[in-house]
Design a protein that fits this description.
The chain is built from 12 helices and 8 strands. The protein has about 325 residues and is an alpha/beta fold. It has an 8-stranded mixed β-sheet with strand order 1-2-4-3-5-6-7-8, with helices on both faces.
Length: about 325
């Protein structure tokens, strides 16, 4: 599913969103920092006062920018923390790609919390970002106040199931193109090999958006690294569009979610082809104490597709009234 996540950031043209949360200039008001963690320069941007919220982007491979573009205005109400995990965005690359893992991403959250001298934090994760969010809430239960999981995954098994679901969709709706995929697979090409990437990445994007496929994330004007394929390949596996491996396949939070004490909001999209409703609704069973909201006219990016409903829900959840 490498294509799914790179497309979230890089496809098509800007759409004008009639919502006060979206400010194209929001990136300019944040001050960039480089802090040393484990001998690496980690990119960090903090702004605002009040209860801290960490924003965790998807991928794994995306930089912090699209989360900042959609949530950066909340600095007026809370202390916001945006950062790039190791190997992503403006942070250093690892000396050894084996350092990229879900477990390392979980620990980076804790190291940043300690660095910033914060007691409890809240977490807002989107897509892959929900994975380390849940892992952190389970491992450090006393440190999480609130948690928002947007179009996420509760296990590596769910990630694999969604890959299978998308591949079935692609094969069923675009059999002419899928013949090429089958031919390359028969020759031994993996999803990280360029010949297969070129074909696989050319499928339409309807599974990311419910209706308006011209939507795009709010992005900074300056040049930045929005996607890190090496990180994706290491965490999801070299053939991750078909056979999930890496550290992702070992994640399984299903039995532990019922014990999470952080107040939790789970958001899903009815037409999400990345985190499909078939598996998203399982959160109701695994995490019955959480609030579950299905967005009926959204796919993988409800904050873009149903912004009024989305931000109203976020404001309510965090008690933001102005």
């Amino acid at each position: 599913m490498m294509k799914l996540y790179s497309l979230i950031v890089f496809i098509l043209v800007f759409a004008t969103l009639a919502n006060a949360q979206i400010d194209p200039e929001i990136f300019d008001i944040y001050e960039e920092q480089k802090i040393q963690i484990d001998g690496y320069n980690i990119h960090l941007e903090v702004k605002g006062e009040g209860d801290p919220i960490f924003f965790l982007p998807g991928g794994p491979g995306n930089s912090h920018d699209y989360m900042q573009g959609s949530f950066g205005q909340y600095y007026k109400n809370r202390k916001l923390v945006f950062f790039d995990w190791l190997g992503r965005g403006f942070s250093d690359d690892a000396k050894d790609i084996k350092e990229y893992s879900v477990e390392a991403d979980i620990e980076m959250i804790e190291k940043l919390r300690v660095y910033l001298k914060l007691d409890k934090i809240s977490l807002v994760g989107h897509s892959y970002g929900t994975v380390p969010a849940q892992g952190y809430a389970i491992k450090y239960p006393g440190k999480v106040d609130k948690m928002v999981l947007i179009n996420g995954f509760h296990s590596g098994a769910m990630w694999q199931a969604n890959c299978d679901s998308y591949n079935h969709y692609a094969k069923t709706h675009f059999p002419e193109r899928w013949k090429v995929v089958d031919s390359l697979r028969a020759l031994g090409y993996l999803s990280t090999d360029k010949p297969l990437q070129d074909v696989y990445g050319d499928f339409p994007t309807k599974y990311i958006y419910y209706h308006n496929t011209s939507l795009k994330q709010n992005s900074p004007k300056k040049k930045y690294r929005g996607w890190s394929p090496d990180v994706y390949a290491q965490i999801i596996g070299p053939d991750g569009d078909f056979d999930v491996s890496g550290s992702m396949i070992n994640q399984d939070y299903r039995r532990k979610l019922k014990d999470v004490t952080a107040k939790t909001l789970i958001i899903a999209g009815r037409y999400d082809g990345v985190s499909t409703p078939e598996f998203a609704v399982q959160y109701k069973t695994y995490m019955p104490q959480a609030r579950f909201e299905m967005f009926e006219k959204s796919a993988h990016n409800p904050y873009l597709e149903e912004p009024e409903k989305f931000y109203s829900l976020i404001n309510e959840f965090f008690g933001i009234t102005d």
